[in-house]
Design a protein that fits this description.
Arc Repressor Mutant, subunit A; homodimer; 2 domains; Jelly Rolls; four-stranded antiparallel sheet; DNA-binding
DNA sequence: CGTAGTTTTGATCAAGATCAAAAGGAGTGG
DNA sequence: CCACTCCTTTTGATCTTGATCAAAACTACG
């Protein structure tokens, strides 16, 4: 829709972009891409950096091009919980809320295309297809959140950890080489913050999986899934 | 936007509708209302009835006019969890998924305006304002789901029950008469399915609140909050 | 080699699940 | 009006899971 208003040539950076066809940009043709490119700013952000603090004026949104981010919400007693993880192609930020409800922090060095929120909203006003894509994304994310509600409230620690590893494998190892091998982008304590478990319980469950021969831990934060079927079995329980 | 295409007169049923200004319809002017009214069907559905079964072809969507619905997702071991409650003005159904991921069931006798999904999507194609409203709603629901993720994974049973009662009071007692008095639209076992607790634990916590004088239980499923401050205190812990 | 951080392992404890049964409440029929 | 049944709620006793407290082992880095 609404193509060739100017030149229908994508900005060079965009045409080679890894997430051209999965991010918000996938709803835009080359011509429209120029417009969103004009308001965007490509930046690399190092691990640990905080993109958005809870309560911020919420001025920025972004497309995540590479890396992994965590979305953290603070409990009443200063106890943090990770309510979402963001992977390449995901949309970052809250388009409508005036102040940010969550803190967004970088886990792995990340590349982002950052847009001022107001400008992005203007672009969306003219691009219902892009807005529909955001709606679908939001509904998919809601679906995910509800899936985790089930896991958090009903599953045992062993099933939580198994589910988490399967989920991470699904999202990370296509990028890597061999199936079932990936590097966790987070510490044990962050895994605990995803699963609602203490660091000790996470560690014990991971060790139990290793002892049972279901996974291997070649060192650092890398994980190899040796027996996918048994891991899935533990996730179901 | 795009008003007076025909006569800018709202259908009589709509102009007196209790949720005219809060449901999806609030994004439509009187003229456009006629169009959505034309594809809609007003129905009353009795408690216990199931509107959508998990896995259904997902053909319908609706605006909830009165009553309360529950959105239920089945765990692996046939253990159900309530992942959402729907109140008057809320949108019911999944616009994009081809098969329903959740079962939707009526808790209190409910009035709905039901629309065929395909027809509704066509209306939305021409009404970006309505679609934007759905996007905002979806993001608000996501926010809610994430709030419950925190509660489910981090709070104790006593805090969960207190939080639940505060939430229900907020949503139900403005409709009723005296502040802090309302009828729970669900059984103890359904409360357990919201909070990830057993029926026994819910019962014990409710009893403890009554014994402490924080709430009163005049009979049936009605609840009176006697000490809002102390209830809030328990919810924070 | 030493220091600071993370991860693992161990011992104990408490919250909530589970199993079991009694008590309450609503509807039905005598 | 009472007796009976069915269902929900409450109460009680015990047991399991994961949290907590504590310390050792491992990693990375200067």
């Amino acid at each position: 829709m609404r193509s060739e208003r100017r030149t229908a040539v994508a900005p060079p950076r965009c045409s080679t972009c890894a997430v051209r066809d999965s991010a918000l940009c996938s709803a835009l043709d080359d011509g429209d891409l120029a417009r969103i490119h004009a308001i965007g700013l490509r930046r690399t952000v190092a691990a640990e950096q905080v993109l958005v603090w809870t309560g911020d004026r919420n001025a920025i949104c972004a497309n995540l091009v590479s890396g992994v981010l965590k979305v953290v919400r603070a409990g009443p007693d200063r106890q943090d919980h990770i309510v979402g993880l963001l992977f390449p192609g995901d949309f970052v930020g809250e388009l409508f809320a005036d102040s940010a409800s969550d803190t967004v922090q970088v886990l792995c060095d990340a590349d982002l295309c950052i847009y001022p929120r107001a400008a992005l909203r203007h672009v969306l006003d003219d691009h219902p297809a892009a807005e529909r894509l955001l709606l679908r994304r939001a509904l998919a994310t809601l679906n995910d959140a509800r899936k985790w509600m089930l896991i958090l409230s009903r599953k045992t620690a062993r099933a939580k950890v198994a589910t988490f590893l399967i989920d991470m494998a699904r999202r990370l190892d296509d990028a890597g080489a061999a199936a079932g091998k990936f590097d966790l982008p987070m510490s044990r304590s962050e895994i605990g913050a995803v699963l609602g478990l203490t660091i000790e319980t996470v560690s014990r469950q991971v060790t139990a999986l290793r002892v049972a021969g279901i996974i291997a831990l070649p060192g650092g934060r890398s994980v190899v899934i040796r027996d996918h079927a048994r891991l899935a079995g533990r996730a179901a329980a």
